[in-house]
Amino acid sequence: MNHLKPGTVETLTVAREVDFGFFLTNGNEDVLLHKSEAKGELQLDEDVRVFLYQDKQGRLAATMAIPEVQLGTYGWCEVVEVKESLGVFVNIGLSKDILIHEDDLPKLTEVWPAVGGRLFITLKTDKNGRLLGKLATENIMEDYFKKADRSIFNKDVKGYVYRTLYSGTFIITEEGYRGFIHESQRVKEPRLGDKVTGRVIDVKEDGSINVSLLKRVHEKLTDDAEMIFAYLQERGGSMPYTDKSAPEDIEKRFAISKGAFKRALGRLMKEGKIYQEEGWTYIKK
Which residues contact 36 (CB under 8 A, 6 or more apart)? Predict the structure, then answer.
């Protein structure tokens, strides 16, 4: 007869009831189903479908709350705690959180998942039989991808980061498309498990997509114009910068290129919000 193993679903029989729960058996081994993990009252000799896991004391236990994530099956879970010297803990629907060991996470802790991140994982056991989480590999993710077509070009997509590399970031979109974000198409590197929103800049022959997290030109122009106008307001309506200012001065003050600065000024002037005079820019009263 097979031994009871954490991470699996079993149909066991109620052997006896105690004050704090029920002992279930497969005829060879017994395991405790705590009353807090049971759904209603159970009867002796009743067959019960349960998920086996280790409780906080490391003992094999049972629950009638069957998680999607099991040994050999995959599902989404949320990161609930991060410990840099150990790994991250995720909630798969049990009373005990599951550890994804640092050995199964990226080498750079800067791209480790943050609390609230979502990961696609399965379960495994270590050499001591302890239940751990394991990230889905690229080969596994391939089974969940859908092919995109050219109709989504330049459309916005949302997705979760499932893999990070020096050259870029891989996501699976809400639609199931495999997306790649090249390092040149992001302001900062997303973390594993982050939800990102970007636009489709290419649809490949294999149905995967390239995604950019950078703003569209008109969106960036709006942001730059709003930033410059807010700066003018903070200074009482004037500033010693115009479209003739030195690029290095603009970069130092606004952290944007002179070209972007001139486009933003042009927009504000076209909207009648500002004017320039003798090397200064003013808000129109």
Answer: 21, 95
- Domain extent for 96: 75-136
Same domain, 124 and 164: no
* Residue 118 CB-half CA count within 13 A: 11
pLDDT digits 0-9 by tens, 221-255: 678 888 899 899 989 999 999 999 999 999 998 88
| Rounded Cα–Cα distance for residues 273 and 90 (Å) | 51
Cα separation of 174 and 21, whole Å? 41
* 279 in the same domain as 232: yes
Beta carbons of 209 and 181 less than 8 angstroms apart: no
Does the pLDDT at position 100 exceed 50? Answer: yes
Q: Which two tokens stand for residue 15?
A: 């052997």
Q: In what order do the strands lie in the sheet with 238-239?
A: 238-239, 280-283, 274-277
Of 248, 283, 246, residue with least CA distance to 268: 283
Give Cα 175 distance to the centre of its chain. Answer: 15
Q: For residue 200, count other CB atoms closer than 10 A to its CB.
A: 21
Which token pair is 81?
């705690």
What average pLDDT is seen over the chain? 91
Domain-ending residue, one of 174, 196, 212: 212
pTM for this prediction: 0.74
Per-residue model confidence (pLDDT) at position 1: 47
What is the predicted pLDDT for the residue at 217? 60
Residues 70-80 have pLDDT tens digits of 999 999 999 99
